[in-house]
Amino acid sequence: MSSPASKSQSASLLLSRLVREDRGRIISGLIARVGDFQLAEDALQEAMIAATLHWQDGKIPNLPLNWIMQVAYRKAIDKIKQRKTEQRAKSEIAVLSVDEAFEREDIGDERLSLIFTCCHPALDQKSQVALTLRTIGGLSTAEIARAFLDNETTMGQRLSRAKAKIAAARIPYKVPEIEEWPQRLQAVLAVIYLIFNAGYSSGPTEGAELVSEALYLGQMLDQLRPDEAEIEGCVALMLITNGRRGARVDTNGVTVALSKQDRSLWNKTEIDQGIALIDKAVTRHKPGPYQIKAAIAACHNIGAGSDWKQIAALYSSLLHYEPSVVVRLNHAVAIAEAGELDRGLALLRGLQSDLTHYQPYHAACAELLGRKGFKEEAKAAYLKAISLAQSKADIRFLTERQNML
Amino acid sequence: MKYMFLIYSDPALEPTYGTPEFQTMMGGYFALNEKLKADGVMRGGEGLKGINTATSLKVRNGKIDVMDGPFAETKEHLGGYYIIEVADLDAALKYAAMVPSANHGTIEIRPLLDYNPAG
């Protein structure tokens, strides 16, 4: 016989595991049934509270997931009853209660519909990110606000506005049709990658939660829709990039350039996993921007150095999908690194007006000008880059490079 | 759900009357009208005369103030509208992409308020 204390502990352990692993499935199933994000969230919240009360006496149901689903569903129906007039409620409930017994083992899985609704282009991207983290990731409003340096009230309002628009404009809760799929998938991947990048760029120790959340979402998507080259490309990109996390900053807190990184600090398992995934993706012959970016990341990791000729070629094909100035900047740098210093510099100069406030632009100019022997110009570019740098690690790195001129 | 398409465009970018481009655009509108009717989703729609014909009015403290010109001085003007009835926003977006003026202007998609008391 276990003590009451350990019983209640096992109940809360079970609950937190359920929340972590199955929240997405529960909430996506609830939204599919009641058709309302906020209602589903509130009902799930209440069902979790009910579970902590009922399960603590050791009365853990055989199918805990189904129990939560059933209780949450009933709570949602109660809320609909409260909301509507008597007459209206009767007809609505008649429809709602036809099917659901939740006695089957399988509670279904509507997460794919859920993520596509959260990342619908009719919502602005910040809201897409917030809604994805809140609904599928189960992060609290406060956690999301902290991650994106927003205040909690603003973030709360953003989430409510997004949920209200989904209901009012009737943004559908479904997986997009085949002709819309490629474009809509890119929107979903953009959100996942944005979450990853927010975590990754906030430093080697900070932001780990967002990184693992993004990986979780990417891998979930890959599971729900296997054999999709761009999903594989996106997950591969995150794995390979994150694999270098440990070597990005040295013990003095200075950013370390990729070519100077101590490769023994790389997470080889993660990188190999990523490379295997991108290798698999390209065999599908359905190219796309995430696969190209993952291939570029992989080019930095195979062999002792980076294969700059290949990288320059890959950036050139990336421009086809993403003709942004940042991609053009990377393309120019790769060309210089591949041996065509003058051509790289000329391309960089052409980007000046667009990237005048972009730190990496000035850092790249400084580096190439330095190699060319233009010390004064290089120094000025380093100073400009330092004035725009946002992290201490970057400032130290740029200062060191400048001193080496 | 009913949606209104508000068709905005910059007159400077619109095809000129009498050109083949204008013919193509008008052909596109006729085709869209037919499609909306055939699909059973058309609930209305009109084109508007240019903003040089617009008059604006407001009443303040019982005083009527009438002015020449449109409500807002913007580059892109409201030039017409459709009302369609479809299942959801994705269905509405599909039709909105078929509005010829989307190729040079912008279509704003707005759900209509539902005044049905039982709704």
Report on this model:
In chain A, 69% of the residues lie in helices and 0% in strands. Chain A is mainly alpha-helical and 405 residues long. Among the domains of chain A are: 4-103; 111-193, no CATH class; 356-405. In chain A, α2 (37-55) crosses α3 (64-83). Chain A is elongated. In chain B, the strands form 2 sheets. Chain B has a 4-stranded antiparallel beta sheet, covered by helices on one side. In chain B, strands 3-4 form a two-stranded antiparallel sheet. The A-B interface holds A 88, 120, 122, 168-172, 174, 176-177, 180 and B 1, 87-91, 93, 109, 111, 118.
Q: What is the H level of CATH, i.e. the homologous superfamily of chain B?
A: Dimeric alpha+beta barrel
Structural class of chain B: alpha+beta
Distance between the termini of chain A: 73 Å
Tell me how many strands of chain A there are.
0
What is the global morphology of chain B?
flat
How many structural domains can be distinguished in the coordinates of chain B? 1
Unreliable residue runs of chain B: none
Largest sheet descriptor of chain B: 4 strands, antiparallel
Labels describing this entry:
heterodimer, A: 405 residues, mainly alpha, 19 helices, 0% strand, B: 119 residues, alpha+beta, Alpha-Beta Plaits, four-stranded antiparallel beta sheet, two-stranded antiparallel ribbon, 34% strand
